[in-house]
Amino acid sequence: MAEKRSILIVGGGTAGWLTAAYLARFLALGRNPHLDIAVLESPEIGTIGVGEGAFPTIRATLQFLGIDEARFVRATTATFKQGIRFNDWLHAPHDGGRHSYLHPFEAPLYADGAGLVPYWLLQDEATRPPFAEAVTIQNRVAEGRRGPKRLGEEAFGGPLSYAYHFDAHRLGEVLAERAVELGVRHIADTFDAVALTADGQIDHVATRAHGRLTADLFVDCTGLRAGLIGGALGEPLHSVREHLFVDRAVACKVPYARPDAPLESVTIATAHEAGWTWDIGLAGARGIGTVYSSMHLSDDRASDILQAYVGRDVPIEPRILSFEPGYRARSWIGNCVAVGLAAGFLEPLESTGLVLIEAAVAMIAELFPHNGPIDGPSARYNRLMSGRFETIVNFLKLHYCLSQRPESFWRDHADPTSIPPALAELLAQWRYRPPNRFDFTLDLESFAFFNYQYILYGMRFRTELARGRDEYPLGEEAERLFARIRAFGEHAVADLPLHRALIDEFVRAART
To answer: Domains (ranges, CATH) in the chain?
Structure first.
C-alpha cells in the first residue's frame, strides 16, 4: 500500500497554480485518498509578469489540464502567438532601412525525408528570400496578421503551430480555479518563517493565521524571493551574467487607439543600444517592456527608450523589475523543490520562464516518489534541470553573439570569451553544416534544432556548402518545393481569418 503523501506548494501565481493543477491531474488526486495537495498563497503578494507569452508546449499542458481553449482565451485576454519577429538585432536602422527576421513556431517543410535548408543555403545570397519565408508558410501568415487556425477547428490544434500571449495574473486565476476543481486545497495566508529539522530538511512553515503547516514535499514557488530553497536552505544562485547581461526590465501596458485595432500574431522584439524591447498584443492592450543591462544602461535611459517606443504623447506608468540571470544548481534539496523564478530566471527572451515551469512540473510528476525517501529523485532531477538551464543559456546567447551592432552591450556579447564553450563548438561546426537533431540531447533541450536554424540564418550566419554542392543533387525538386511553399503561403493568407476577427470569435464562443 502506498504511503500517505502531502505536498505543500508555497506561493501561487503561474508557477504555483500550474504545479498544483498538473500534479493533481497527473497523480489523480481526486481518486487517491493517500495524497493531499495544498497551495499556500499570500493575498499580499502580486504576480510578477516579465513578458506575457508562451511557447507551443503550453497547448499540450492546458489540454492535459482539461481547460477549454475558448474559455482560456476569453478569461486571460489571450491572443495567438506564432513566433517572434526580431527587429534591428543584426544592425541598427540606417539609411531608412532596417533588418528584421521571424522565428516562427512551424518547422521548416520536409518532403520525402529531404530537408530544404541546404538548398536555401546554396542559393544566391543577394536574391534568395529570408530563411523563414523560404521554408515555411507561417512567415506570410504572420506578416498578414492572420490567425493560425479557424474557430471550428480542433481545440489546441490547427494547420499551424502556435502559442499564446496572455495576462499573467489572469492565467494564474484560471489555473487556480482548475486546480481547486481537481481537489487542491487553497490556503490564503502568508508564511513568516521556515523551520528546519536537525538534518537540514524543512520541518514546517509558520503562517500568520494557520500556524504551522507541514508536508512531505514542499514546493517553493515564492518567486525571486526563493524563501525556501534560497532563504531557508541556502542554495545559492549560479549566475550566468558572464554570458547573458540583461538584468533589468521596465514595463507598461498601453491601450489600443481603437477596439478593433489590428492584432499582431507574433511577439515583436526590437533591439536597442543595450538590450531589446518586447511588444505583446493582448486582446485589450499591448504589453510593452524594455529589457536592458544595468552595466550598460541607466534606469532613466531605459525608461526614456520605453517612452520613445510607445510614443512621446502616450502617458505610461512604467515599473522596473530587477533580476539576476542565473539558476540554482540544486533546485531539489531534501524535501523541497523549487519551481519557477525560485529555481532560476535567465531573461524574458523566448518565453523560457514558462517553458522551464512546464518542464519542471512534468518531471516532478513523473519522478514523484509514492514510497520511500522523498528526495530519492533529487539527484537526477537536478542534473536534468541544470542541463536544461545550460542549453537555454546557449540558445539565448545565440541571439546576441551574432549581432553586428557597434554599441558596447552588443560588442561585449560578440566577444568570444563571453560565448559558452558548448555553443562555440557548435558554431564552429555550423560553419560547414546546418544544425541537426544530433547536436542536442532531447531530455536537456527545450528547443528543437530548427529553432536554432531560424536564429542562425535570420541573423545571416554563413554556412559554407558550396564546395560540397555535388552532395545535394535535388536542386530542381527543391525549387519546386520552394515554389509550393510560396503558393501555399499565399493561399493560407487568403484563407485564414484576420487575427483580431479570430479572437473576437473565440470570445463570443466562450460566452455561449
So the answer is: 5-78+165-239+325-387 (3.50.50.60)
